[in-house]
Amino acid sequence: MVSTCHVSKVHFEDNQFEKNRIDGWIKLKWDAIPTIFNVPNPPKSMMATRKSNKNQTCIIFLRIL
User: Fold this and answer.
1) Can you give the pLDDT of all 65 residues of the chain as single tens digits?
2) What pLDDT shows up at residue 65?
3) Does an H or E element contain 36, and which?
4) CA separation for the pair 9, 36 (Å, rounded)
5) Which residues pair with 50 in a beta bridge?
6) What is the DSSP letter of 57?
7) What is this structure's pTM?
8) Rg (CA), the chain
């Protein structure tokens, strides 16, 4: 296990950044979520479904680490 972790701009998709800033800064949106990770031998994704209280099917994506 790695003892340190770093999150940088390479971990965010382009739509997570503020566009056309006048000051030229590259800045993340306030609700940005990192979604890009380079993981050697990543675990398989698992898809599960469940029914909500309104009898609608919700799809939940789980990643087992």
Assistant:
1) 556 667 788 888 999 999 999 999 989 999 998 888 777 776 676 665 655 555 555 455 555 44
2) 45
3) none
4) 10
5) 58
6) E
7) 0.50
8) 17
* Residue that has been written with the tokens 């990543």 in this structure: 42
Two tokens at 6?
């770093």
Structure tokens at 40: 């050697």
Q: Cα separation of 62 and 32, whole Å?
A: 20
User: Whose structure tokens read 């306030």?
Assistant: 30
Domain boundaries, the chain: 1-41
Cβ-count burial 40-59 (b if 16+ within 10 Å, e if not) = eeeeeeeeeeeeeeeeeeee
**Count of all residues that appear for the chain in the document:** 65
